[in-house]
Amino acid sequence: MEFNAQRYRYSSRRAVVYGVKGMVATGQPLAAQAGLEILKKGGNAVDAAVATAACLTVVEPTSNGIGGDAFALVWNEGKLHGLNASGFSPKMTDASVLLSAGLKEVPKFGWHSVTVPGAPSAWAELSKKFGRLPLREVMAPAISYAGDGYPVSPTTAKLWAQAAERYAHECKGAEFQSWTETFCPEGRAPFPGEKWSSRAHAETLSLIAESGAEDFYRGRLAEKIDAFARAHGGWLRASDLAEFHPEWVEPISVNYRGYDVWEIPPNGHGIVALMALNILKNYELPECRENSEAYHAFIEAMKLAFADGARYVADRRFMTVGTEHLLSDEYAASRRGLIGQMALKPEAGSPHKSGTVYLATADGEGCMVSMIQSNYMGFGSGLAVPGTGIALHNRGNNFSLDPESSNFMAPGKKPYHTIIPGFLTKDGAAVGPFGVMGGFMQPQGHLQVVTNMIDFGMNPQEALDAPRWQWIKERMVQMEQAVPNHIILDLAARGHDIKVLGDSIYFGRGEMIVMTGHGTLAGATEPRTDGCVAAW
Known about the structure:
The chain has 19 helices and 21 strands. It is of the alpha+beta class. It has one domain (1-536). The strands form five sheets. It has a seven-stranded antiparallel beta sheet with strand order 1-20-19-15-14-9-8. A hairpin with a 2-residue loop joins strand 16 and strand 17. The longest helix is centred in the middle third of the chain and has 21 residues, at 292-312.
């Protein structure tokens, strides 16, 4: 269906992109073109998604990598399928080591935060279940860019330089040397427009493509990861990798004013976005988005949802409260009743910045994919497996070191996870995939994009471009500079602690594809990223 801005229009800085036979929307133009190339070779939306995802590990390594996790929602033949390709903690994991050292949280860098990477398994599983083309053909563009090189885009260069500076100050041990050798071989991050390549990365991608990821989990690559961990006191072993398999899951949803909004169930925190929408669905909002009452309601609902997420979301096997209760209308009503005229101070975690890539694909036959993958906090743990191009993620940082928490760090357990792909349907038909990158910004971005479209009648581009806010903790809220000053002043009078940021990169980076009422596809990306919508 087509979203027409009849009640309200935000002056968008970009135009919606339209296509018929296929579309790829993601945060890096070379990756989007790689996905479109696969569509033109006869691949479907799943093939295009895998091609794009693999390519993003090369052209945007600042936000994802071979050693990260992935989630996907796939609309195929009238049904939505969910894939959870997030890894568990190694069997040798021992939280007492960290607690005895006096730590209050799992370290961000180094081996203690490394869990089994799931991204390669996602590519292979998606290709096997839904793809049309051989995995080696689908991953060929990524292999080519890694081996032959590509010009680094501006946002990627900026994040790369920030990561290099941070690792230089915080990652001093011998185990971090291979990251510098892999990603800063000249002793610095590449400049915008400078060509960068990694023969080791290309060879690793080739092994994954040829083996259907078996080499990563039960072959030569697994042995290299194991050897690297053993050499530096890491807990991860080849046996952990061999035991891992991605999991097909039933997506969860709430109906928001006639539209079904879908997310992957926990251990991901997509449920936080759904809880907030469930609180808001019977809330009477003003017709215009540029109204402090709307901002206040959204922020308060988001706080309440995050408070519940921090307490209950974990590996589903360890959750003490089921998703059906957290998403019940009765519970939403009880939480809605807590929203008053003044800012609340709920108990919740402290959202922080992250590194993630999102992509949406669609073909001309109705198949659509919402996919997200990440190394977390940029490049992740600061560890790169020597001679492979594999930067290992640090998802274990999201474990709790509180023994009373459902998310307490333990062996063979998946941590609370921030990356979440989204999908919209209406009356049993696909509307389309959407996503917003950025750690704890992601559920907040999902809420803002969905309400922009459904409550305020924006088209996809307007919904992504509109000024954003981000709740941080307690009453602290960050605002983009584009938020009108009268709203900021009124929110401050309600007790919100407002901080206006000049850099929009902290407010997520999103893409979206929707079906129109004319049998065509409408795609959008946003100026907070180097995004591109490649259409056919």
